[in-house]
Amino acid sequence: MTCNNTLLFVVTKGFQVKAGPPPSYRLDDFNARAPVIGKLNNVSKIAFNPCGELFAICCDDLYRGPMPSNACVDWFSVARRVSKGGWNKYKFILFDPCGVLYAATHDGQFFKGPAPCNENVCWLSCQATQVGTGGWNYFDVLFFDSKGILYAVSHDDRLLKRYPPTRADDNWYASSTTIGKGGWRRLSHFMSFSPDGDLWCVDSCNGNIYKGPAPDTADTNYIARAENLGWNYNIYPLLAFTTAKH
């Protein structure tokens, strides 16, 4: 059962933002019922911190602010720019459960640091710590569980997990645990844990969305244990989970 304050946040190809409870059965038409709550014009990456604050990259800059709340307003016009330049170099941005920002570059480096809050302070050179020197660009997706374990889908189609790296020479890939042996790259259009601990995946080919327990061994068949809760979710370039604030 998904927590009743869980929201699925999506960005359409036209940069409209929609949000609503995630689907609970296969014919639950999320696209029809989820309201448009704003715009994220020319957004390239999104991530929510544990407090539900949105971070988004646009035109090489990083912005942060509350959840969009006006369907007619471009969120970037009211959000705060907290870092100028250099953000298009990142393939992934993501937060751990403590609110630490992790970012992997397109050339394979991996960094972590506090979430930026001042556009005049360079995050990469002044605040971030390098925790990976290469290979991080070969993953299809990176995400954390609620305990701070880092998960990744590798270029050879495996689902991996391990505590996150803490130093640049930490070979995370070689020392991670394989908990899925095949079929994971296809499921990596969107892959994330919901706040209640279920693993959700979207099939990049047909858009099917699945919810199920995370595999615990390489031989576990995730699809066989998961629920199929709809299709066509690959129409959304960006998806994320967050929680509604009451």
TrEMBL record:
Pfam family name, one:
Tachylectin
User: What are the Tachylectin domain coordinates in residue numbering?
Assistant: 16-236
**What Gene3D superfamilies does the record tag this protein with?**
Tachylectin 2
Q: Which organism is it from?
A: Leptobrachium leishanense (Leishan spiny toad)
Q: What is this protein called?
A: Tachylectin 2 domain-containing protein
